[in-house]
Design goal:
Chain A: One of its GO terms (molecular function) is acyltransferase activity. Chain A: This is Beta-ketoacyl synthase-like protein. Chain A: InterPro entries: Thiolase-like. The complex is a heterodimer of chains A (207) and B (84). Chain A is an alpha+beta fold and 207 residues long. Chain A is built from seven helices and eight strands; from the N terminus they run βββααβαααβαβββα. Chain B is mainly alpha-helical. In chain B, helix 1 crosses helix 2. Chain B is globular, with a radius of gyration of 12 Å. Classes of the chains: A alpha+beta (207), B mainly alpha (84). The interface between A and B is small, with 10 and 13 residues.
Chain lengths: 207, 84
């Protein structure tokens, strides 16, 4: 489905300890780093000064870091907060954190882990960071459904007050992770292209 | 109190906070202090249970106990003495 009023204006892919911005390799960390080490290194390089990052679970850290990179120079942050929404998806929901939390229950259940036992918390962390207050939804599916992730955000931009929407895939299970985060806007930009499933697939390019 | 500060940092994942930067009387929850939140408060309760085997019998005591590192240390010392 083509949408004449929805454009992909930015992308951030994180996989294999590499971060790609708009299709180009932005940063590559040591391949030996484990996920938490990679996330800390990414935080130090692209952000810092946000201590709450260290309290997040891996899913939230991944989504938060991708948003940090993707939105660094994005004008979307100048939009009214209620005009920016989010639609994310993944395969494992919050299972990675659920299992960690469950392992604490036999001793003393961890409140800090408990608050991350929902997949959509990652969207909350991104919204808190950037002040977004628009509609958001989290889907769980086996693979990154580029058709859904093109038609649904396009529909949101067409029939709701949203003018921009972050959409994509934020998956983590133990050391396996992958993020594909896209900025969708209702206005064309220099680097933008119409939002279609094929365009998302091309930018996603799973390895 | 140095040990308690280190335990708080580890329990609350305050990775960018040095133990020596926390004042003994610094507020734990105000924005001018450490700026902890409600989840941190629950983690501090867990800390008391895990490290000192202490349970807060009266929840209304919480704000006083967790006012600062010094008030926490005072509570720990007093209650461990009572237990002994």
């Amino acid at each position: 489905m083509n949408s004449a009023s929805a454009y992909i204006t930015g992308s951030c892919i994180i996989r294999h300890n590499r971060i790609y911005l708009n299709g180009a390799l932005l940063w590559e960390a040591d391949q030996e780093l484990e996920l938490q080490e990679f996330l800390r290194a990414g935080y130090d390089r692209f952000s810092g000064q946000y201590p709450k990052f260290h309290k997040m679970d891996a899913l939230s850290k991944l989504g938060w870091l991708a948003a940090e990179v993707l939105l660094k120079d994005a004008g979307v942050k100048l939009l009214p907060p209620e005009k920016v929404g989010m639609v994310l998806s993944n395969r494992s929901a919050s299972l990675d954190t659920d299992l960690r939390y469950y392992s604490t229950v036999k001793d003393i259940a961890s409140p800090a882990l408990f608050v991350y036992t929902l997949a959509n918390i990652v969207m909350g962390e991104i919204c808190i960071r950037h002040g977004f207050k628009g509609e958001n939804t989290f889907f769980v599916s086996d693979t990154f459904d580029t058709e859904l992730m093109s038609t649904y955000p396009a529909q949101l931009l067409a029939v709701t007050p949203l003018q921009a929407c972050l959409c994509g895939w934020v998956e983590v299970m133990e050391q396996q992770y992958e993020v594909a985060l896209f900025l969708i806007e209702n206005k064309q930009s220099e680097m933008g292209q119409p939002l279609t499933g094929a365009a998302l697939s091309s930018l996603y390019q799973p390895e | 109190m140095a040990d308690l500060k280190a335990q708080i940092i580890e329990q609350l994942n305050l990775q960018e906070v040095a133990p020596e930067s926390i004042g003994n009387d610094q507020s734990l929850f105000s924005k001018e202090g450490l700026g902890l939140d409600s989840i941190d408060a629950l983690e501090l309760i867990v800390l008391l249970q895990q490290h000192y085997n202490l349970r807060i019998a009266n929840p209304e005591q919480g704000p006083q106990i967790f006012q600062s590192v010094r008030t926490m240390a005072t509570y720990i010392t007093a209650n461990q003495t009572v237990q002994a």
